[in-house]
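hey so u asked for the seq, here:
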Amino acid sequence: MLATGGSSDTTRLWNLQGTLVAELKGKQTSIKSISFSSDGKRLATAGGGSTVNLWDLQDKQLTIIRGQQGRITNISFSPNSKQLATAEGDGTVRLQDLQGNELHKFSDHQGEIESVSFSLDGQQLTITGDDIAILNDM
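ran it, structure tokens below
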């Protein structure tokens, strides 16, 4: 499955043959980052605001995760599908569970964070941004 987003609050799901299979209307002004959980059961989207839309792909239910302070620039599911890392425009990265509880906060970078990515075993988180790359042990 392929997920696309853009300048509206709608995330579109496509099969690999290019057929639209679902449209998910969220609570965001645009979609800037999308992440599938590794178990394929959930999809997280983030746009120009400070919330994450978390979709259950089986019943298309939406949960809104709050707790971020800045504009979210990137999101990533952990390999076990139980946590989300969010990068914010102010240089903060937050690790949260799927209920929105903050598990850890990385705030030692001054510039914008562009990408967050977990290692395959979930023990490390890579953070990249304005002229930096940081590898954090979890």
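The CA atoms of residues 38 and 81 lie 6 Å apart. The domain at 2-137 is CATH 2.130.10.10 (Methylamine Dehydrogenase; Chain H).
lmk if thats what u needed
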